[in-house]
Write a structure and sequence with these properties.
The complex is a heterodimer of chains A (about 220) and B (about 290). With about 220 residues, chain A is mostly helical. In chain A, about 75% of the residues lie in helices and about 0% in strands. Chain A has 11 helices and no strands. In chain A, helix 8 packs antiparallel against helix 11. Chain B is about 25% helix and about 35% strand. Chain B starts with a strand and ends with a strand. In chain B, about 40% of the residues are buried. Classes of the chains: A mainly alpha (about 220), B alpha+beta (about 290).
Chain lengths: ~220, ~290
């Protein structure tokens, strides 16, 4: 019987990352869309960087940062008693950074495509920024939210380089399905690799197909 | 009494232009701001609402101070008791008509006003519809109702009827007049439609290149000082045709066309598309070009 735990681990990772990243990206996208910030271009560039950076480069720097011998890793370990190198927690944080552009850019596009008068109209009837965001803006960019969430989910499922650098391949901890495929191929277990790869292929394709179907029907935000 | 003083440098196509304004509106009055596009009308309205910052500004509504840049005081837009109708209506697409209105009522406000406004604006049939399925005129009525729903101290209308055809414009002007009177509103309307201003406004100011050119009753400030008569209407010349030695000038005012006779000398100052004032002196209507 084939060990399905890498698959579950991947799904769990993708789910957790999607939820946390959504919560983090909403305020960030608001800030980038409406905030009067200096160096906005630099911040946007930094947010989009994981999209173009080789995952191994990103993974390498994260590995250095997470190491208990360096300031950030030491800080997390002493304050939160969490080790980030070769652990699931480390994978979550690495994936948050790796998938950041997918969520933030989708939300940002949605907010920027809304007429500015919607936000202003809500302000003129005395509604706070929070109420305006939750009751008016977010419900009107549902397509973008769906896009951002699904892309984040699918992208986290499919990541390899960052996970390999930061997480290694510890069964039930950091051995996600993409790593498992690699391991199986290396050990010449083509049959097992084929099953993992096939499931991943069908799963990610189905997710994307559903998003396109839903979004095309609603004629709202397209993926790209 | 509403008191507004504002200074702001506008970036226009011709370069920088200072907007330098000071005016007062009495409680319950209907004031129109007239001017060409780019004269700063909308910016002025947005400064009063607190949506656009000005370099220096003072806004006082009755006893409430909203802006006093001299003392570094600025009340955020959310705290100002305003109703603002946007050019593009800005209805919330995710909410139905009635939800749009309910959203505008403050938490401990009077919810009865929603059903009252639904009746008042004749939106009963549409109250469960989403804004996307409504016509322009219907959306405008919802936008107007939504702006009034919180019982604002001042109603600000930014060219609310610009996108509508003449028939619809005419009908909606009636709603605006009725609402203004029924809810004892103080209203400021931005418009570049003279018939509209004549029909709705008690006072008007003409904005030109960022300055107030004239301020007063519409009938006084939009016509030549020599004109006087029993009744007058404004309109636009839509046609001039020669008929023997005289000319027939067709003037459209609201949804009627008035045909008038003019001499060759008078015609020299007129052209199709010009805004004019038609004055009737006891028997013979005469025609005056508007500034």
């Amino acid at each position: 019987m084939i060990d399905l735990s890498p698959l579950w681990l991947s799904l769990k990772l993708a789910f957790i990352v999607t939820v946390i990243l959504f919560a983090l990206s909403v305020p960030l996208a608001w800030w980038l869309a409406y905030g009067k910030i200096k160096f906005k271009a630099l911040i946007e560039a930094a947010v989009t960087l994981p999209l173009v950076l080789p995952p191994s480069v990103l993974g390498f720097y994260l590995l250095l940062a997470f190491s208990p011998q360096n300031a950030f890793g030491k800080f997390v370990e002493t304050v939160f008693h969490v080790r980030l190198v070769f652990t699931f927690a480390g994978l979550v944080i690495a994936s948050l950074i790796y998938s950041l552009p997918f969520m933030v850019n989708a939300l940002l596009t949605g907010l920027r495509n809304l007429p500015p008068s919607l936000k202003e109209a809500s302000f003129t009837i005395g509604k706070s920024r929070f109420t305006t965001l939750t009751k008016i803006l977010l419900p009107n960019i549902r397509g973008s939210i769906l896009t951002g969430m699904v892309l984040t989910f699918a992208h986290t499922l499919g990541e390899f380089g960052v996970v390999l650098m930061v997480g290694g391949s510890i069964p039930h901890q950091t051995r996600v399905v993409s790593i498992a495929v690699y391991d199986e191929v290396e050990s010449m277990n083509y049959h097992t690799a084929n099953i993992y790869a096939g499931i991943l292929l069908v799963l990610t394709f189905s997710i994307l197909a559903v998003v396109y179907l839903v979004n095309n029907n609603k004629q709202s935000t397209k993926l790209f | 009494m509403i008191e507004v003083r504002a200074y702001k440098t506008l970036n226009t196509q011709e370069g920088k232009m200072p907007l330098d304004i000071s005016f007062r509106v009495e409680q319950g009055q209907f004031m129109a701001i007239y001017g060409k596009s780019g004269a700063g009308k909308t910016t002025l309205l947005r400064i009063v609402a607190g949506l656009t910052p000005a370099e220096s500004c003072f806004v006082k509504i009755g006893d409430d101070l909203w802006d006093d840049s001299g003392n570094k005081f600025h009340l955020p837009v959310q705290k100002r008791s305003i109703g603002f109708v946007f050019q593009d209506y800005a209805l919330f697409p995710n909410l139905t008509v009635i939800e749009n209105l309910e959203f505008a009522v403050p938490k401990n406000g009077d919810r009865k006003i929603v059903s009252e406004l639904i009746d008042f604006m004749e939106l009963g049939q549409l109250q469960q519809n989403k804004p996307g399925s409504l016509s322009g005129g219907q959306q405008q009525r919802v936008a107007l109702a939504r702006a009034i729903a919180r019982k604002p101290k001042i109603l600000l209308l930014d060219e609310p009827l610009a996108a509508l055809d003449d028939d619809m414009r005419f009908k909606l002007q009636e709603y605006i007049v009725k609402a203004h009177q029924f809810y004892h509103l103080t209203t400021v309307l931005v418009s570049h439609n003279l018939p509209e201003i004549f029909r709705l406004a008690d006072t008007a100011l003409i904005l030109e290149d960022g300055k107030i050119n004239r301020h007063g009753k519409p009938a006084d400030i939009f016509r030549e000082p020599t004109a006087s008569g029993r009744f007058n209407v404004t309109g636009e010349i839509i046609d001039i045709t020669q008929n023997d030695i005289v000319y027939i000038v067709s003037v459209q005012s609201m949804n009627t066309i008035i045909k008038l006779i003019a001499t060759k000398n008078e015609i020299n100052a007129m052209q199709v598309g010009q805004k004019v004032l038609v004055v009737s002196k006891v028997f013979n209507p005469t025609i005056h070009v508007l500034k």
